[in-house]
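tool=predict chain=A
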Amino acid sequence: RLRQFRVEDGLPSNVVKAITQDSTGFFWIATDEGLVKFDGHDFTTYKSALHSPYAKGFVHTRRGKLFLYGDLDLIEILNERDTVIFRSILRGTRNPTDSTLSFPKLMFEDNRETLWLAEPQSIVRYEDGKLTRFQFGIEDRSPHFLRSFTFFEDLLGRLHIVSYSGNVYMFDTDKEKFVKKFIRFPSSVNDIKTISNVLWIAS
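tool=predict ok
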């Protein structure tokens, strides 16, 4: 049976960007009016958890951590049933700096447990508490509010990104930079998944 939840049922907004479930069974919802927890009966909104109301998405890491990214934040959610702790990992600013994010659209954990975030015209690597930004040209800048770059790893575990315009880059770990590949994906890529050694592209 399908049941729909809306503002009249307790959600702060009908615009929902992502949903996930934590290790204790609670659901977490990213909306345009903040972060929401759902226990199966009631919705609890945590507007003060973020510096912007626009929550974007979640990532579960290999070590069992739950991260949320929004327009101006990257936080870790620590849910202990009766107590919820939001630990700030990175702050966001409208103009990016060497220590802040700027409107991340997507987040990805690679096979080395390094975190990568896609900004409108750049990729940010977060590793060992250090932020490194890789800037791209105007042809790879996304005009979209929700998507910019998409991540995937090939069969050898090498990280690739695809810009919203369809350009493909591979990260060269020796040169510490993204190298453009002689292949082009469809424009407006929304998601990429590798299933049974086959690459599936949603555009």
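The longest strand covers residues 84-91. The mean pLDDT is 93.
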